[in-house]
């Protein structure tokens, strides 16, 4: 089975990151301009803190007692994520995503963030191998 690094090697290596102190309005603007539905939350020392997804914003907006315009990334980001190691297989990543009901999985090597694998990435990997079988 393919390692998760095979997916990361094919992806463009751009960290769409944001500070935890930024506003949700700023985060949504960045997501729109990057044409993505998640941002990587990192501190000033480029340490991974969590992810902020459009789903997080939509679901947590209901529970906020303040206007959305005043909410910060820190209030809505997801910090309780499973993660993968670069030596994990694609199948192991798929199982973790299913078990924890997440669409994004941070991938680390020696505690350094190497990238994010999405359910779309996993699906693309599965389809590419299926095409190889039928060609």
CATH topology call: CBS-domain
Report the count of strand segments.
Answer: 6
Assign the CATH superfamily. Answer: CBS-domain
Report the mean per-residue pLDDT as an integer.
87
For the biggest β-sheet, the strand order reads 1-2-3
Strand content is 15-25%
Uncertain segments are: none
Strand count, sense and barrel status of the largest sheet are: 3 strands, mixed
Portion in helices: 40-55%
Separate helix tally? 6
Termini, distance in Å? 19 Å
The CATH class designation is: Alpha Beta
Second-tier CATH architecture: Roll
Decide which structural class fits the backbone: alpha/beta
Helix and strand string, N-terminal first? HEHEEHHEHEEH
Rg? 16 Å
Number of domains: 1
* Gross geometry: elongated
